Amino acid sequence: MTNFPPQHQDHEPGREHDMTPRPDYEPRFPGSGRLQGKAAIVTGGDSGIGRATAVLFAREGADVAIVYLEEDRDAEETKAAIEKEGRKALLIRGDVRSKAFCREAVDKAADAFGKLDILVNNAAHQEEAEDLRDITEAQLAKTFETNIYGYFYMTQAALDHLQPGSAIVNVTSVNSYKGNDTLIDYSSTKGAITAFTRSMASNLVDKGIRVNGVAPGPIWTPFIPMSMDPEKVANFGSQVPMKRAGQPNEVASALLFLASEDGSYFTGQVMHPNGGAIVGA
Fold first, then answer.
1. Of 149, 151, 186, 265, catalytic
2. 34-194-281 Cα angle (round to 5)
3. May I ask which residue range the UniProt record assigns to the signal sequence (predicted)?
């Protein structure tokens, strides 16, 4: 049963180092070389699902570039964790809402590692609103520009580097399938990401590039204390059949599967680490 202390963070984006308890991001098993020699870029890689994915990719042999907005302390912690796994880490600070920045970030990663094999689109923004009329133009723009424009921009840039055998993994959400009455704009972007994933999978299949998605349910990340009331945080995750929130390292394994040759017969698909909620495929 989930039982988090009530907490709230006023600064956006949230800070993983200020969370109580800290999320579990460490890989749970020894590596087996599933990404040996690969180069990856992970947006929102400083914390949460992005951090867990970046460190797991490193354990499996990949060098990893982390794109993050401004959370320097969290990003440095993630960099140290990647390097502890014996791999190269590159921190790239900036806003995925900018097409020019996305181009710069992808080119920096490809130059640093000599290639790019894996793109993980994960950076996101969410704000709660009880009434649709409370969603301002500024909030709507920020949510769409971060959550879907950023995915477009990063993918556009990455296509100049990805080769046959490469993989793109997009992080969507359970809310893409079931909706969320206080995250209407966020849920709308996640639905767009699901459609984008399927469309790009079809577009790139003849080029040998696989495109898949992961749709997490309630996961204990900086999103939660940053965007929710403290009382909601205390009961976060209790609504799913498992009666608890998931941890980032319980999602990262799904991204690893889709990014590696384990997922070689998967494209246009979405995996659902969500604590047992049954949603449409």
1. 186
2. 85
3. none
Report the pLDDT averaged over residues 103-125: 98
pLDDT tens per residue across span 205-218: 999 999 999 999 99
Question: CA 221 to CA 52: how far, in whole Å?
Answer: 10
Return d(Cα 173, Cα 183) in angstroms, integer.
Answer: 11
Whose structure tokens read 């767009």?
Answer: 192
Q: Compute the distance between CA of residue 238 and CA of residue 2 in angstroms, rounded to an integer.
A: 6
- Please list the alpha-helical segments (H only) found in the chain: 48-59, 72-84, 99-113, 137-144, 150-158, 175-178, 184-204, 223-227, 230-234, 249-259
Whether the bond between 21 and the residue before it is cis, its omega within 30 degrees of 0, is yes
My answer on whether omega of the bond before 225 falls inside 30° of 0, hence cis, is: no
Q: For residue 188, what are the CA distances in angstroms to 92, 126, 191, 227, 281? A: 28, 11, 5, 17, 17
Contact 233, 58 (CB under 8 A): no
**Of 277, 272, 226, nearest to 253 (Cα)?**
272
Tokens of 133: 């009329």
Amino acid at 188: S
| Cα first-last separation, the chain | 27
Q: In the annotation, is 25 catalytic?
A: no
In the chain, pLDDT over 70 holds for what percent of residues? Answer: 99
Task: Return the structure tokens found at 117.
Answer: 């094999």
* CA–CA dist 10, 68 (Å, integer): 18
Which H/E stretch holds residue 42? strand 39-43
- Taking the C-alpha atoms of residue 59 and residue 57, their distance in angstroms, rounded to an integer, is 5
